[in-house]
Amino acid sequence: MTLPADAVVIHTDGGCRPNPGPGGWGAVLRHGVHVREMCGGEPGETSNNRMELMAPIMALEALTRPVVVHLHTDSTYVRNGITKWVLGWERNGWMTSAKQPVKNVDLWKRLRLACAQHQVEWFWVKGHSGVADNELADVLATRGMHEAIERGVPVG
């Protein structure tokens, strides 16, 4: 896979322990030789899916100008949601095909807005499979969760 010279490669992860429970998200952004690590979390009750969504949202919102982004996630929920389901949800007034309200609609709307600023290509990567930046994003998500719990307030 050949990247454009100005492309940003992002790996994201999120999770909770237990689910639902306190959670964290992490992101690794690479642009040429530059690397930025980000993390945050929620000390109260959240979900794995909310944290998996927060990671790409925060990473994309951190970019200061429109760029080509290759975004890697180990969440099929996030990848399928943003690449396959979200347009139908929007068209149907944020209802699923089963006529139920879309879960995490606040974050899906925020992710759509963040994606609109960039040219984002989505990739799924198997979690805990030795992909260095995915493993780092997992470590960052755990850090974000622990920092949020220690402070007792959302971090990030």
Automatic annotation (TrEMBL):
Localisation per UniProt entry: Cytoplasm
Cofactor: Mg(2+)
Catalytic reactions on record: Endonucleolytic cleavage to 5'-phosphomonoester
Amino-acid positions noted as binding Mg(2+) 1 in the UniProt annotation, renumbered to this chain: D13, E52, D74
BP GO terms, sorted: DNA replication, removal of RNA primer
Ranges where the RNase H type-1 domain occurs: 4-146
Keywords attached to this entry: Cytoplasm, Endonuclease, Hydrolase, Magnesium, Metal-binding, Nuclease
Source organism superkingdom: Bacteria
Gene3D superfamilies in the record: Ribonuclease H-like superfamily/Ribonuclease H
Enzyme's top EC category: hydrolase
Keyword Endoplasmic reticulum: no
Principal location listed in the UniProt entry: cytoplasm
Family matches, as CDD domains: RNase_HI_prokaryote_like
Co-factor remark: Binds 1 Mg(2+) ion per subunit. May bind a second metal ion at a regulatory site, or after substrate binding.
InterPro entries, per database record: RNase_H, RNaseH-like_sf, RNaseH_domain, RNaseH_sf, RNaseHI
EC identifiers of the protein: 3.1.26.4
Alphabetized GO MF terms: magnesium ion binding; nucleic acid binding; RNA-DNA hybrid ribonuclease activity
GO cellular component terms given for this protein: cytoplasm
Sequence positions that bind Mg(2+) 2: D13, D138
Family: Belongs to the RNase H family.
Quaternary structure, from the entry: Monomer.
Function, as annotated: Endonuclease that specifically degrades the RNA of RNA-DNA hybrids.
Descriptive protein name: Ribonuclease H
